[in-house]
Specification:
The protein has 169 residues and is of the alpha+beta class. It is 26% helix and 31% strand. It has a domain of 110 residues: Immunoglobulin-like. The radius of gyration is 19 Å and the shape is elongated.
């Protein structure tokens, strides 16, 4: 079963070394990684690109969050938020800060991974974790978490999570 999953994550895993070409390796590179010239991708590697575009926040729900009492005292205070992303064995990545109840983050992350049994098992059983924080008084208040199941990456090529994905408080 792991071999079948490796073929889905790495479509050239079943080809002999003589059939793998440099041109095909370029096809494996993600669009973002190719544009940024992030690095060369070897045949046993894969790149996961994850983009955070925007969000819709609800003031009445945010005000119920522990540690947000200052907002109720000053309703004109702008909401300044950021997202963090945790994936596999990479360091936590942070989005740009954005302001308002409809923040526009426009941040993209590119995670390069070696395709092996550990990685494939991780994709089968784990999730990508995204946390939302609000900036307050030089600190960050945790507003919620969203977990995206990674097994969807194996089952279909493009995973798009719509803007209505709820955060878990």
């Amino acid at each position: 079963m792991v071999n079948d999953l490796e073929k889905k994550v790495n479509p050239t895993a079943h080809l002999s070394p003589n059939r793998r070409s440099v041109a095909f390796e370029d096809d494996v590179r993600s669009e973002f990684s190719a544009v940024t010239n992030e690095s060369e991708v070897r045949i046993d590697e894969n790149i996961l690109d994850f983009k955070i575009e925007d969000a819709e926040l609800f003031q009445n729900i945010i005000m119920k969050t522990h540690g947000i009492s200052e907002i109720s005292q000053n309703p004109n205070r702008p909401f300044v938020t950021l997202c963090t992303v945790d994936f596999y064995n990479h360091t936590t990545e942070t989005s740009q800060m954005a302001e308002g109840l409809r923040p526009n983050y426009q941040t993209q992350f590119s995670f390069k991974n070696r395709i092996d049994d550990f990685y494939v098992t991780f994709l089968q059983k784990q999730s990508l974790k995204m946390d939302l924080y609000m900036s307050m008084n030089n600190s960050a208040v945790h507003l919620g978490r969203c977990e995206i199941l990674l097994k969807d990456l194996i089952e279909r090529e493009v995973v798009h999570v719509d803007s209505k994905t709820p955060l878990i408080q």
